[in-house]
Amino acid sequence: MNPLFTHVDMDAFYASVEELANPAIRGRPVIIAGPGKRSIITTASYAAREYGVRTGMTVNQAKALCRDIIVIKSDYRKYADASKRVMTVLESFTPEMFIASVDEAFLETTAILRKYASRAHLGQEIKARVKRETGLTCSIGMAGNRLLAKLASAMNKPDGLTILEPDIVQSTLDVTPVEKLWGIGPVTKMTLNSLGIRTCGQLGRYPETLLCNRFGSYGKRLSLMGRGEEGIHLDKNRTLGGVGRSVGHSVTLPFDITDRQKMKTVLLTLAEMVGRRARRQRSRGRVLALTWRYEDFSTFSRRSTLPSPICLTEDIYRFSLRLLENIDIRKPVRLLGISLSDLSRGEQTLSLFPEEDKREKVQKALDNINDRFGEFTLALGDTLKDFQTLEVISPSWRPKGGRNGE
Question: What CA–CA distance (Å, rounded) separates 110 from 114?
Answer without folding.
Answer: 8
